[in-house]
Amino acid sequence: MTGVSETPPVTRTLFLAALFVSLTGFLGYYDGTRFITPPKIVILGVQLAFVFAAIAVLRMLAFQNAATLAPLLIMALWAALTLLWTDDTLISARRWLLVFIPGIGLAILAAADPRPARSFAWFKWFLVAVTFGSYIFSLNVYAFGDITGTGEFDRFRILDLGGWVVGVSEGGRQYLNLNLYIHRFSGFTSNPNSFALYSALALISLCATARFRLRAGGWVEIALILAIAIILILSASRAAVAMSLVGLVVIFLLRTERRKLARLSVFAILGLTILLYALPVLQAGSGLEGGEEIFDLRERADIWRLAVQAAGDVWFSGVGFGMTQEAVFAPLGTQTSGHSMPLSLLLETGVVGLLLVLVVWFRPAFTLTRHDETLSGTSIAVIALLIALFVHQTIDSSVFRYHWAHFIFVYLIGASSRLAVRCHNA
After folding, report:
1. For residues 139 and 122, what is the distance between their CA atoms, to the nearest angstrom?
2. What backbone phi and psi angles, to 5 degrees, belong to 64?
């Protein structure tokens, strides 16, 4: 694929529609008891309808850049092979289908996108709209709504609009040493951490593509960046703040043509990730657990300790894709996820699967920076977002799950493939 004219315009519309559904389908509101959002089967059906329609129109053009997605396809194949030795093939297969069929389809369409920069601009402003929309919605509910529920995980603020009850999930973070309590709200997402993740993604996208010119348009960009930065800080999400800082560092390195340092940052992050998971094991029984609220890993330290210990028995082949909770934690009497994408995939797909994921994840940081051409804002944004998202996923596990963050990930992988082909053909 070398020209825009080769691609029927309707396919880009179908691609953006698939991406739009993959993100908005997971947005909603609380009614005081539960999160109201479309059923997964409806989201999946619409996703697949748009994806397959676009591929049908493109035909063979859809697969001209498929070779650049080989690491993702190989990883999906390996994850499928783990179904052969998992204890519950049906559950694992269902989760594999939910994650990889729409995910690979979306990546293929992004890799065939004739206008990746325009599509990313649309994606960026979507993130900004959700961030501001969620914050304004939360402020209105907080100002005019009522609180219901008193538990840590069932506290909501609701607003009755003539019989239609809308609201948000409310949490908070207490910093005793600072005598500070920060209210945390979910906005249009399912929890405050997801709202914070949206804010971080929007901030990184804006900073990567902003021109920072002190003109009318430049002032607007700067104002938006500052406003989202404030929203992010007020979210009190340590993972979102950490990923934003990493993303901003990567943007700075790439904007100043320090490409080698940007690539080396990948290895630094991987080293720090290993240290992060080693600490709970090393501190067990040492009396060093806990600490300041802002650094305390809380229950995650115990979960990671169990995960690292369990990985010793299944490190090569894993227990089966998507089976961390049932095969690892449930037998130990713990109803939890891994709270870590790398550890979860190590447990589920073994070291082979994890290494494949790392290749998929960080390959764009090398393929997009090896050419002499000046990096576009879109390329810088894609690299920074992928590296930053990995940092977030070291303490979360929403990528490689049927979750909107996973579809952002596969979109970025597909977009990076398209951008790499353009650099090669330039």
Report:
1. 26
2. -65, -30
* Residues with Cβ within 8 Å of residue 85, at least 6 apart in sequence: 317, 320
Radius of gyration of the chain (CA): 21
How much helix, strand and coil, in percent to the nearest 5, is found in the chain? 70, 5, 25
Distance CA 1, CA 6 (A): 7
pLDDT at 1: 41
pLDDT at 174: 65
CA dihedral (339, 344, 347, 352) positive or negative: negative
> Mean pLDDT in runs of 10 for the chain (426 residues)?
59 95 96 91 96 89 79 96 95 97 96 94 98 97 84 77 90 68 90 96 96 73 94 93 98 95 96 91 58 57 87 90 91 83 96 97 94 89 98 95 98 95 65
pLDDT at position 144:
92
How many CA atoms within 13 Å lie on the side-chain side of 118?
A: 8
What is the per-residue pLDDT for 100?
98
Q: What is the pLDDT of residue 217?
A: 63
> Residue 402: left (phi > 0), alpha (psi -120 to 50), or beta?
beta
Tokens representing residue 197 in the block: 């993740």
Which of 52, 174, 175, 171 is CA-nearest to residue 108?
A: 52
Question: CA triplet 207, 204, 254: central angle to 5 degrees?
Answer: 65
Neighbouring CB atoms inside 10 A of 318's CB total 29
In whole angstroms, what is the distance from residue 318 CA to residue 117 CA?
38
Burial of 373 (0-12, 13-18, 19+ CB in 10 A): exposed
Spatial CA neighbour of 99 closest among 415, 397, 346, 326: 397
Which run of H or E residues covers position 192? helix 192-209
Position 279 scores a pLDDT of: 85
Q: Are 79 and 96 in contact (CB under 8 A)?
A: yes
- The alpha carbon of residue 389 and the mean position of all alpha carbons in its chain are separated, in whole angstroms, by 6
- Structural tokens at position 62: 């859809």
Q: What angle do CA 371, 376, 380 make, to 5 degrees?
A: 85
Contact 312, 343 (CB under 8 A): no
Q: State the pLDDT at residue 22.
A: 97
